[in-house]
Design brief:
Elements (H helix, E strand, L loop, with lengths): L2 E6 L6 H13 L2 E7 L1 H6 L8 H9 L6 E5 L4 H8 L4 E5 L14 E5 L7 H9 L2
Parallel strand pairs: 1-2, 1-4, 2-3, 4-5
The chain binds [cytidine-5'-phosphate] glycerylphosphoric acid ester.
């Protein structure tokens, strides 16, 4: 069967994340989602509101998600693609081109983001309350 792989932070899970995951689930027979660890985020100077354990549990609970793996480094994608025999890596188009170096081990495609929603916007709205 066809295996699809993506990565994300999924902090404050919202409809944009869900719409992406639904499209990914429809692209293949198996969907693997890498969720960034708190340590990996810290390395990027990012701190998520929601802990890794909770972000991973929420993503794992979504229909169509078959496996959640921790994303601990930028360079694990190639290992994950090979280890899980991934056919296609898919990311939102804010990442367009960024993972094309993996095209020697899998297809790489970028899907349009869902407009009007992002974890950053939600945090801004909340801080203005
Ligand atoms: N996304 C989307 N529409 C939105 C917001 C996000 O389609 N309105 C997509 C993003 O393009 C991404 C995924 O949802 O593919 C997860 O988004 P984030 O949680 O913001 O993940 P990000 O910080 O982009 O982390 O190694 C890659 C990183 O782990 C990706």
């Amino acid at each position: 069967g066809r295996t699809v792989l993506t990565y994300g932070t999924f902090d404050i899970f919202h409809i944009g994340h869900l719409r992406l995951i639904e499209r990914l689930a429809a692209m293949g027979d198996r969907l693997i989602v890498g969720v960034s660890t708190d340590e990996f985020n810290a390395g990027k100077g990012k701190r998520s509101v929601v802990s890794y354990d909770d972000r991973a549990a929420i993503v794992a609970a979504i229909k169509g998600v078959d496996l959640v793996v921790p994303e601990e480094s930028w360079d694990q994608k190639r290992k994950d693609v090979v280890a899980h025999e991934v056919d296609v890596l898919v990311m939102g188009d804010d990442w367009t081109g960024k993972f094309d170096d993996l095209k020697d081990v899998c297809e790489v495609t970028y899907l349009p983001r869902t407009a009007g929603v992002s974890s950053t916007e939600i945090k801004q709205l909340l801080s203005a309350l």
